[in-house]
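Reminder: ligand-aware prediction takes two inputs, not one.
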Amino acid sequence: MSSQHQSSASLIVSLLNEHPLDLGTYEEVYKHIHAHPELSLHEAETASTVAKHSSLSTYTVHTSIGGHGVAGVLVNGEGPTVLLRADMDALPVEEKTGLEYASNVKTKDADDGTATAVMHACGHDMHVACLLAASEWLARKKVRETWVGTLVVLFQPDEEGGKGAMAMVDDGLYHKVPVPDVVLAQHVMPFKAGKVAVRAGTMIAAADSFKITLFGRGGHGSMPQLCIDPVLLAANVVVRLQGIVAREVDPAEAAVLTVGSSQAGHTENVIADKAVLKVDIRSQHAATRDRVLSAMRRIVEKECEASGCVKPPLFEQIRKFPMTVNDKDVTHQLSKTFSHIFGEEFDPKVVTSNASEDVSDLATSVKKPYCMWFFGGIESERWDKAERNGRIAEDIPVNHSALFAPVIQPTLKTGIMTLCAAAWTHLGRRES
Ligand SMILES: [Zn+2]
Ligand SMILES: [Zn+2]
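Here is what comes back for the chain with zinc ion:
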């Protein structure tokens, strides 16, 4: 560790101590956003809460970028431009946490117009509260006097759909705000609150999902000889697809293939005319991704042929998330700062996650480096107890579960400190 970085890391620690974070205000912000979740592409109220918040009063604020995207810019002399990003959208999940600030929201905003319960089941509410707090802290006069450069704080819509970051870029984000030298972001995850984790290289897998329609020939349940049964075909396809990861992917490589939905027919005495499968794929290397995707196509097409289908299957891509590959130098710098602040609670070599993220689009679209890290949201005692009893899977709700609710502290405090420290590390130093 160079003395320059050592002193820079110590400096941010003393700054955080000298200018304590305002936690109370942001606990209320968190609870408010948690109680008022909005689905992807419908984040209007959340965006308005963000844009009007006093944290951004010294920023030039741009709204409605790529949908409900918001970006605040704080120019503070000549120096590097750092972009901090939080996502804002919630999920069609009915909250079952029983918390006093739990969501009761039902909306008709879902694609099919039916009433849907909505919940911040992925912690994006926590990301927003942390970023508002960090925006305020970094703009404080005494703190601002220690850094130079430009800070961009970005609140992104539609992360769950995987299109929000690109929608902002396509809508002229970088004509409204300066192109950053580095993009930084974080995600709350189901591990102990107070802990922070990152890795250089592939941090988060690529994700691809497809709707696959298999065309049979429908008819009377008593006359299978005149039909092509899509149920039997779909069953064979589902089983066969499970051979891809088991038999075609290098055992040293990670990949996941899940058939999350299988639908055909309505009643017992009718052979349906089609079956629809929904398939989700995660991969950690481009070559593995290509291999899994082409194997999926091959198997589905050949099974259809084997069944004598009159029409080839139809593949429709539902979602496509890029791989999140943390820049080595940026991650190295951040790791120095984080290990100084969090000590043993910081893990610089966490295993690659098979979740998915589109934050990289904000950086790769302008060929800039980026880094995303994780911070924990599970109450320490609860985690320890689950671990002692060998019941992590049973007792610790994961992201997207109806029971997922990060414990407010120390999660919020940790998530604010990480953002403040990460931004500060990559901004310029004011000569004193
Ligand atoms: Zn999510
Ligand atoms: Zn998420």
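The longest helix spans residues 286-306. DSSP finds 14 helices and 19 strands in the chain. We will return to this case in the review session.
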